[in-house]
Amino acid sequence: MTNSRAVSLTWPLLLAFGLVVALLGAFGGWLAARATTGKQVREYVINNPEILPLAMENLRKQEDAKQLAGVRGDVEKPFPGAILGNPNGKIVVVEFADYACGYCKRSVADLDALIAENPEIKVVMRELPILSPQSADAAKMALAAGDQGKYPAFHKAMYEIGKPDAQTIEAAAKAAGLDLDRARRFVADPRLDAEIDRNMGFARQLGFQGTPSWVIGDRLLSGAVGKEALAKAIAEARS
Question: Among 83, 100, 110, 139, who pairs with 227 as Cys (CB 3.0-4.6 Å)?
């Protein structure tokens, strides 16, 4: 078992070290010329505290980029049909979601609004059924909807109808206009279990521990962060 006190003491030290590294990286040339001692660096930071948020932001971006290295292409490549927005959009938003997740449901309106405002957004949906046994059943039916070109309709209906169970999943499938016989055959395909396993692996590598979680450009976000935070990450990705 991890010693919680040790963790609580270590993290501030690591953060402080990271901030110093970020500061030296961002302002190395300036400081080399004007602040050659530790005391001068300390005084500069104390007298200019506004640089700390910038240093923290730069450090966060560096850590996000490290976690994304080597997996971005795979994470941004959707399971066939599991897409919202523009399938050919140049701005890629990846959402890890669970149909039993209330925060995912809360984020639907934010994402819909952003898609409506920007036709270049392509949302790659990654099914991450971690909250209930029925979550996996809903995730597989969503992928079956993608196979029939009806992922957005099922996605919307599933969140509107309620938490996933046998009845709500079938109701959402009917509301989306799925061929149920074809969908049931597709749900039995081993590729769907493999897809969900891949998503679990991606989530672990990216440090995601819940839903919704997001990959937008170089940003990794967790939770129902709201439209403003998503829009800011999209703007950064666009630039």
Answer: 110
For residue 200, pLDDT beyond 70:
yes
What is the distance between the alpha carbons of residues 213 and 120, in angstroms, rounded to a whole number? 21
Is residue 186 a contact partner of residue 52, using CB atoms and an 8 Å limit? Answer: no
Strands (E), 29-167: 83-85, 91-97, 121-127
Report the predicted TM-score, pTM, of the whole model to 2 decimal places.
0.76
- The answer to whether the CB of 155 falls within 8 A of the CB of 84 is yes
Strand partners, 92: 122
Please spell the DSSP secondary structure of 159-199, one letter per residue: HHH-S-SHHHHHHHHHHTT--HHHHHHHHT-HHHHHHHHHH
Residue 47, C-beta contacts closer than 8 angstroms, at least 6 positions apart: none
Which residue shows structure tokens 């660096």?
41
